[in-house]
Amino acid sequence: MFSPGTSVTVEVPASSANLGPGFDSIGLALGITDTVQATVAGEGLQVWVAGHGEDTVPTDEGHLIWRSALAMWQRLGIEPPTGLELRCCNEVPHSRGLGSSAAAIVAGLATALALVRGRIDNPAALAMISDLAGEIEGHPDNASASVYGGLTVSWADDDGAGWRTVHPRVHPDVQAAVLLPETTLATDKARAALDDTVSLSAAASTAGRAALLVHALTTQPELLLPATRDWLHQEPRRASYPESMGVVDQLRARGLAATISGAGPAVLVLGTGDPGLDGDRLPAGWRVLRPGIAETGVRVVSRSAPATV
Q1: Does the annotation list 99 as a binding residue?
Q2: Is 291 annotated as a binding residue?
Q3: Is 103 annotated as a binding residue?
Q4: How confident is the model at residue 133 (pLDDT cuts 50, 70, 90)?
């Protein structure tokens, strides 16, 4: 199944999830990219990591890309290669709320599928990657955005058999900026701060704004400020990222559609035109990034196979 020398290179974008009221369901791909090159070679697993996480992520069988690749091969009923080299270039910051784990999972799944089938740019392949990524991640919002690019809205099948996603076209005037702190926050810690129940009024208010959010992002960007208001997750987690919530409060008071990006602590700002963020007094160590919206999701940049005699 795997010929020594077969190699694929995969690119996958970062993502921001929730965007305010779209908790665990709405995602947006950002123009920050991780790249993975996988080559069938030798015996065992070899992993090299450059960029974010190069000194902290596992470089053995515990590496998330490898574990995700194994999940894809298991789904396909295929034994993994006896030897694989992984070279990972990470541009997506880790533990900031920009979907680094989802990007790694999507990269691993796509790499595994590309090594077997060569191409992944068809609806069935992308749906398989997105569904399995959501299953591994536990929620589909970041992963679906990294798979499809642009804006994604995801939900679980009524029978719990998998995830489904649509990707409405973002209005061409909408731009995305990210305010990035030096501090990090683990997703599991952020999720642990949430209650198991919410009030009826919070649920109703958030549902209305989530619907408005899709409309604002696709049709009326001038409604982004009210459309990004949230009641479910940002306030309950304020103590987990007080500095970030201070930035959100400051920007929203100026009329800017600012939200916590995913589980935080990065802040996402949506709007049209230049929001003038460089003039804001941000906390020490914060940086302004303008990655834009990635219209393309995961893709195979190149694939090569050994010559046959």
Answers
A1: yes
A2: no
A3: yes
A4: very high
Nearest to residue 265, comparing CAs of 196, 198, 141, 178? 178
Where residue 276 falls among pLDDT bands split at 50, 70, 90?
confident
CA-CA distance, 78 to 164, in Å (whole number)? 25
CB 81 within 8 A of CB 71: no
Q: By the 8 A CB rule, do 32 and 14 touch?
A: yes
Token pair in block for residue 11: 């690119």
Sign of the dihedral through C-alpha 244, 255, 233, 186? negative
CATH of domain 7-169+294-304: 3.30.230.10
Strand partners, 260: 267
Output helix, strand, coil percentages for the chain, rounded to the nearest 5. Answer: 35, 25, 40
Q: Is 97 annotated as a binding residue?
A: yes
Q: Does 93 count as an annotated binding residue? A: yes
Question: Binding site annotation covers 96?
Answer: yes
Amino acid symbol at 18: N
> Has 211 been labeled as part of a binding site?
no
100: tokens are 């680094």
What predicted TM-score, i.e. pTM, was given to this entire model? Answer: 0.93
Q: With respect to CATH, is domain 175-289 assigned 3.40.50.410?
A: no
Annotated domain spans of the chain: 7-169+294-304, 175-289
